[in-house]
Write a structure and sequence with these properties.
Elements: H1 3-12, E1 29-30, E2 46-52, H2 57-73, E3 77-83, H3 88-98, E4 103-105, H4 110-119, H5 127-130, E5 140-144, E6 150-154, H6 156-159
Parallel strand pairs: 2-3, 3-4
Antiparallel strand pairs: 1-4, 2-5, 5-6
């Protein structure tokens, strides 16, 4: 194996380290009961961002597969819903009725736009806001480290549910202790 591949493998499989920043510090995350979620929920786990919109037929087909995936890996993986819905009300209804047992980033939270730009994932309806230079529309899943860096990309818009087959349990987990609380 080349040095570059060994280095990449070591980075992906690195065990959780104590003390780390949290990309969600200061953001508003909620669970299905409406309760606020802190960064500590993600400690020692893998975290995946799920970009989707209720109006999107591909998203409606993909979400049940993601729910099944999450139920299988619920002990190791947390999912954060990043909405591409048209309004806060639409996003709240989408999360309440269509999503799995994961958490949602508040629709109006500035981190939502930041994550879309950083990972270059947004819906066709958001092109006027974000431009044409995207790598994927919705649905899409991005596994991130605690600082928001990309660990893996799952091209659900292109590959549908089969995108989830690329999941690896040895992908990097978040630190066991997170320095920044919400």
């Amino acid at each position: 194996m080349s040095l570059a591949l060994l280095t990449l493998h070591a980075a992906l499989a690195a065990p959780p380290q104590p003390g780390g920043a949290c990309i969600f510090a200061g953001a508003t995350l909620r669970n299905h009961t409406g309760g606020l979620v802190t960064c500590q929920r993600f400690a020692g786990r893998q975290v995946a961002l799920y970009f989707a919109g209720e109006w999107c037929p591909l998203c409606r087909r993909f979400t049940p597969a993601l729910r099944q995936f999450h139920s299988k890996y619920a002990d190791a993986v947390d999912i954060v819903f990043v909405s591409s819905d048209s309004s806060a009300e639409d996003a709240a209804q989408h999360f309440e009725h269509g999503q799995g047992e994961w958490v949602a980033l508040d629709w109006a939270d500035p981190l939502s736009a930041k994550l879309k730009r950083q990972h270059r994932i947004w819906s066709g309806r958001e092109v006027m806001q974000f431009g044409l230079n995207r790598r994927s529309g919705v649905p899409a899943v991005v596994v991130v480290d605690s600082a928001g860096g990309e660990v893996a990309f799952m091209a659900a818009e292109r590959d549908g549910a089969s995108a989830l087959k690329s999941y690896r349990s040895d992908w990097r987990r978040w630190p066991v202790e997170l320095a920044d609380e919400l």
